[in-house]
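User: structure tokens for this one?
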Amino acid sequence: MNVSQLVPADDRIATFLSTTPYGARPPRLQWLTGDASDRQYVRVHLDGGESIVLAVHPGAIDYAAMPFSTIAALLERMKLPAPRVLGHSDALGIIAQEDLGDVTLQARLGGDSISTHEARYREAVELIHALQTRGRECVSHTVPYTLAFDVEKLTFEFNFFATHFLAGYRGITLSPAEQSQLAQEFASIVDELAAEPRVVCHRDYHSRNLMVYRDALYLIDFQDARMGPDTYDLASLLRDSYVDITEEERTRLIAHFTALSGISDAAEFRRRFDLMCVQRNIKALGTFGFQASVRGKRAYVADMPRTLQSVRDNLVKYERFAGLRALLAAHVEELR
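Assistant:
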């Protein structure tokens, strides 16, 4: 255990602020809702109405070696909207960032008109296209270019679902024959997705990781970015576990992406998109099951029904998934 793990977060924050220009300005701390990681976030209100946000890690960090620092610098090179890094302390495990406020895309949608709702999603689709396009121009030997949604990673995520959603959360025990069949069904999907050409992917691109700041969208929670199919971030956005999108709107937004990308075979792209959605939504169920059953974060249970419906929509849509659906539906009634 390192020293910073022994020092309360409040004391580490006070020490950090005392070594920065912000220390001379009496702060007020506001603890924010965290994400699914073990990081904590705190808004530091400064006199004059300014504020910054601190990401407080459970222990010491090596900022220069963190994927976050590399990808933050990459996004800045790409001129994509993300919070500026204002400073950090390795010993204290703290990173100071620009404060983008509290309004996520998810939160903003409730107050938007129907036309504004779709306009914001078009902007989000355009950000995906920009990330992919500019990512091709900035290739390096660092993350995200050294990581990928390969066979190993995609298989791990499917296995995570079997362990933490089926067995851990639902208490389902599959027979050896069912386990073998499930592995074969998942392997078929994995092999196809892993063989697709790869682009830079945010990796968790959804309505809770897009902030609305100064009436524009900003990327957050990008530290897990890696290479993957061009459908990955689009699937995360348009089959989001946290908001409802109509099929008509989804179709228009996919068409917007294919037009931007110069994709001529819209039907084949839609098939690949739906395949990616199956993997992405099943992976999300594994995450929700883990958070609920292992970490005790029951709030994620509320996100399961929409995600299960998304899985069912695509399993029903394609004959190739008949066996997978029959197997899962025998144990998960929402997929029947």
